[in-house]
Automatic annotation (TrEMBL):
The DUF5931 domain, residue ranges: 17-183
Record protein name field: Oxygen sensor histidine kinase NreB
Alphabetized SUPFAM superfamilies for the sequence: ATPase domain of HSP90 chaperone/DNA topoisomerase II/histidine kinase
Keywords annotated in UniProt: 4Fe-4S, Cytoplasm, Iron, Iron-sulfur, Kinase, Membrane, Metal-binding, Transferase, Transmembrane, Transmembrane helix, Two-component regulatory system
Biological role stated in the UniProt entry: Member of the two-component regulatory system NreB/NreC involved in the control of dissimilatory nitrate/nitrite reduction in response to oxygen. NreB functions as a direct oxygen sensor histidine kinase which is autophosphorylated, in the absence of oxygen, probably at the conserved histidine residue, and transfers its phosphate group probably to a conserved aspartate residue of NreC. NreB/NreC activates the expression of the nitrate (narGHJI) and nitrite (nir) reductase operons, as well as the putative nitrate transporter gene narT.
Biological source species: Streptomyces carpaticus
Cofactor names: [4Fe-4S] cluster
Amino acid sequence: MGGVRAPDRRAEPGPVISVEQPLWRALTGYRVVTLGYAVALFALGYGDYGRPLIGAGYLAVLTAWTLLTLRRVTSAERCTTRFLALDLTMAVGGILLSSLADPAGRVGPTLPSIWVAGAVIAVAIKSGWRWAAFASALVGVANLMEDGHFSRSALHNVLLVCVASIAIGYVVEVARASERTLARALRIEAANRERERLARDIHDSVLQVLAMVQRRGTAIGGEAAELGRLAGEQEVALRALVTGRPPDGAAPPPRSEPGDAPADPGTAGSTGEARDPDELDLGALLTLASGGPGQPPDAGPRGRVTYAGPGCPVPLPAATARTVAAAVAAALDNVRRHATGPSGEPAAAWILLEDEPEEITVTVRDDGPGIPEGRLAAAEAEGRMGAALSIRGRMTELGGSARWISVPGQGTEVELRLPRQRKGARR
């Protein structure tokens, strides 16, 4: 009986890339560039200032502040509320000092010039559009006070900074909400993938044993029948657990339904070798599954399986080859359990392996009565996940697909496709 494996850590979602980080990097560059711009404007208009030493002193302090706090504007964690308050104070103070440095109003721009927009944008990225509106209003009031007569250009500059900062703050809030939604979706996807893996392993081991105990107990009768009944109840409860559906007190489902997989998927062949020690020959594994060379003497019902494939090895990563072979073994077990030939004898089965440049295709066909329309979906709804998990689930994890083609009275064909460029993916 196959055991349940340890949780696959590779199913855990990777870290979500923050959309804020590029904004912080851009802000860092903006502060440096606009500082150089403000210093250059002051140097060009130095002779027009009535008190140039006031301007020179402020710009010296602003230069030191900007360079010493570059790391503060590289992430939301480092950009603290205290820093933002001091940064806004530097911006507002520079605006108000402009009228003292240029009492005649001969120089147009304020001392910090467009550097002040960086302080407001930092608030927008850190705290969202509401605090950005407050910061831009504070800077706007300082600009209007410095201008004195509320000119059209001053109002234009104030509105421009206000609209830009609010827009950036809103975009950041939306991006953060999207990141949280994406991270939650990735966690749910990883949890569902792990749940499917555990359900598949349980189906291939514990559920098979419980079903066997129930059948044998019912056949023997007496005290064994009671044991079989209890095993059946536990099977129903366990199926409800692994499929996420409440049992609703339903009686145990019929024991022989399409889609159940073998108790030990490893019996599909675990000794096939390829030239690379990390690879296995899929053809060798399928040969063992068909009852070819190397098959143990008690292979039993699998003896009526015919294998056809390429004359050369079909190497795949070991885990991928074993997973495909396990899916094939599950399909063969369905034939053994549920298909009979025209005369009532066990149906014959054929395995065809096709090695193409773009993909590998394995086809499992039988000459049984076929699967009634809608039976696979009904079996999955009842919690019998053989086809959904043991076959389709395995192929989906590898990036491949599984398809059933069945015509009543003409047998069933299961087609497993594995793209070569994605072999081994999502395991």
